[in-house]
Amino acid sequence: MTPSDTAATLDAESTDPASRDLTDGFHLLIDALKLNGVETIYNVPGIPITDLGRYAQAEGLRVLSFRHEQSAGYAAAAAGFLTKKPGICMTVSAPGFLNGLTALAHATTNCWPMILISGSSEREVVDLQQGDYEEMDQLAIARPHCKAAYRILHARDIGVGVARAIRSALTGRPGGVYLDIPGALLGQVMDEAEGAASLIKVVDPAPAHFPGPDAVARAVEVLQGAKKPLIILGKGAAYAQADETVKRLVETLGFPYLPMSMAKGLLPDTHPLCASAARSMVLKEADCVFLIGARLNWLLGHGKGKQWGEPGSKTFVQIDIEPKEIDSNQPIAAPLVGDIESCCTALLDAIGDDWQKPSEDWTGGVSTKVKGNVEKMSSQLRNNSNPMNYYAALGVLKKAIADRPDTILANEGANALDMTRSIVDIHKPRKRIDVGTWGIMGVGMGNAIAAAVETGCPVLAVEGDSAFGFCGMEVETICRYNLPICIVVMNNNGIYRGDDVNKSGGSDPAPTVFVPDARYDRMMEAFGGHGVHATTPDELGRAVEEALSSGRPTLINAVIDPKAGKESGNIGSLNPQSVVAKMREQAKIGAA
Ligand code: ADP
Ligand code: TZD
Ligand code: MG
User: Fold this and answer.
1) Architecture (CATH level 2) of domain 382-574
2) Rg of the chain over all Cα atoms, to the nearest angstrom
C-alpha cells in the first residue's frame, strides 16, 4: 500500500451509517449504485478499490470476487444481457483495467449494458507521465472500446457520473460504459446530507421508442406482399424482454422463423414455426426476410452470398433500436426504428383481421424439411460410439435440458459450440448464453457465474477444452460461492481436433494439440467441487442429472474422440487457408 492509499482509506467504523455525518467517495459511489438498483458487483480487489468492495459488501451489495478481471467483466456483460440492467465490473488500475477492457468491448459489440468501474492513478501524475504505480491514461484507452467513458474527479459529482454511466449504458442501443475512479476521489469527504442530495436516481433510462405510423404501414404492406417470408430473431429481441409480444407477432404473421444463437428459446425450438432444422432451405428460398433485433453481420453472411440464394431475390424488413444499423449491409425496404416491444405492438395493432398468412406450400414445405432433418439427426444422436463423438454426448445433454427447461445453457468452443447450438433445443427465453458477436473464447465461466447469480437457475456450461482453458481457474470462484453450475468439458485433446501432428517431424506437439487425456475433473476436486470422468453417454447423462438435481458445483470431463471435430467448426470458410486451398485446386484443374 502506498502512503497516499493509506491516507485515502477510512476507518472501518465509517461503515456504520448511524455514526456518520460526513460521507466519503467510497460510500457516495456505493449509495449512488444502490439508489439505481445495482445489487451485484463483479470484481477483482486491489489498490485503490479493495475497500470499495469491502464497504459495498458491508452496505448490502453482493460483491463477487473473481480470479481474473476478464471473467469478472464477462460476468457483468452477461448480467446486462440477462437482466436488462447494466452489469457492474470493478477493477484496479492499468493491468486490471486492461484485463477488464476486453469484456467492456465485448459488451459493446454485443449491445449489452455494462459499466466497467476502474480505479486509476491521479490525473496530475498520469498526464505528466511521471511514472505512478500502475500508471495509465485509462480514460483515453477505454473510449474507443465503449459507448461512453467518464471520469469523476470530485465527490460531489459522483451522483452525476453514475447517472450518466447508467443512462448511457441503457438508452437506445445498449452498450458498455467506462467510469474512471481516481483513488483520491474515494478518499474525499463531504457533508453527508449534501452528499445524499447530490445523488441522482435515473428516471426512465431506456425510454420506449415508437416507430412512426408510416413506417408501420410500409412494413405491413411489404410483409403482406411476401410469398415466402421468413423471420430472423436475434439476441436484441431476447434482450428486450418483450417475450409475449414477439411470440404473438410471430404466430399472428404465421411466418417460419430462425432464431439466432441467443434468441433460441424466445419461442421454443420445438415450435411448429421454428425453421432451424431447415436453415439452408429457408435462407435460400425466402423472398422476404424480417429481422427482429438481429444484425446482418458476419453471422448472417452479411445477407448475401450462396447461402442467400439468387442475388437481389430478397426484400428485407428490419426492427432495430439503432437507426444507423439500417442499410448497413443490405438495403432495407421497410425499416422500423424503435424498441422491440413498441414495434411489435404497433405491427400487431396495424395488421387487421384480414391478415393472410403465407401459403401452405411455403410453410408446409418448410415443416416437412424440418421434420425430415430432425429425424435424421435423432438417429445420429442415439449412438454409442467409443470414444464418444459430439452427437453421442450432446444427445444426452439435449435430453437433460428438455427435462429441466429452466436450466441456462452456457456454451463455448468451436465444434463444442456449433454442435451444441444445432443439437440442444432451448425451450424458454434467455436460457442460452454463448460467445456472442465476436465468437470469443473464455466467456464460459463468467457467463455461467452471472447466469447462476442473476437468475438462481441451474446452469449447464458446455465447454470446448480449449475454451475452458481461457477461464478455467474460475472453478474456484464457482466452488467458493457454491453456485449450481455443472461444467461439461468436451475433451477432444485440443483446438478443433486432438490428432494433428507436427509436420516438421520435431518433438513439439502440433500448435492445436493439448496434453492428451487431461483430467479437467480434478481441477474441480481441488476446490471441493464434484469431479466426474465420463467416457460413455450413460455416464455423462447420470452425472449431469445428479449435478443439476443437487446444484453442487460439478465438472464432468467428457472424453470425446480426438478425430471427431472439424477444423474451425462451422466457420471453416472464414479460415484464409480455405481460400488458398481453393486457389490451389483451381490451379490444378487449370493445368490438367
Ligand atoms: P444476433 O447476433 O442474435 O443476430 P445482434 O447482436 O447482431 O443479434 O443484433 C441485435 C440488435 O438488436 C442490435 O442491432 C441492437 O441494436 C438491437 N437491439 C437491442 N436491444 C433492442 C431493443 N430493445 N429494441 C430493438 N432493438 C434492439
Ligand atoms: N482467442 C479468443 C479470445 N477467441 C477465439 N475465438 C480464438 C482465440 C480462436 N478460437 C476459436 O475461434 S475456437 C477456439 C479458438 C482458440 C477453440 C476451439 O477448441 P475447443 O472446441 O476445444 O474449445 P472444439 O470442440 O475442440 O472445437
Ligand atoms: Mg477441443
Assistant:
1) 3-Layer(aba) Sandwich (3.40)
2) 26
